[in-house]
Amino acid sequence: MMRLRMISVFAAILLLYACSTLTLQQANFSWPIESVLPVDKDGDVIEEKYSIQFNTLPMFFEEYQDSSSYRGKEIRIIRDQLGYYYLTAQNFKNVYVFQAEDGELRLQNKIPISESGIVNPAFSQRISYIELIDADNNKLSLTHEGIQEGGI
Prior knowledge:
This protein is α+β, with helices and mostly antiparallel strands. The protein has helices at residues 2-19, 57-64, and strands spanning 35-38, 44-47, 52-55, 74-79, 85-88, 94-101, 104-112, 122-125, 130-133, 139-143, 146-149.
């Protein structure tokens, strides 16, 4: 009887250990600098350094309400410490924040920046936020939740 209890306790411990999730903490998903990616004839962008590829057509349609507005454009993309992707382009009015889920990028936030469109946008990685800089050297601090300070 005692042996059966010991085996049961040991089995329960093994079962609990097997069900626990391995977690590697203090992970930092940020990219040190932005990537500027040309949009190809199909609306796709490919970043080989960070192994990411996706189609931009829905984002360009969301921004311009025009299915052909991606032609000849470049996307600016950067990733923060939490793993959110920030995307924008020349003359976009918004910064789009996506999160990778189940083999796709899902929109988490659309941050309004400028009604007239951002001129020469550039992203820069900071410790706790993403910095967006425009042609006039105006700077905004962005998180996946929105603008943290200032304005363009």
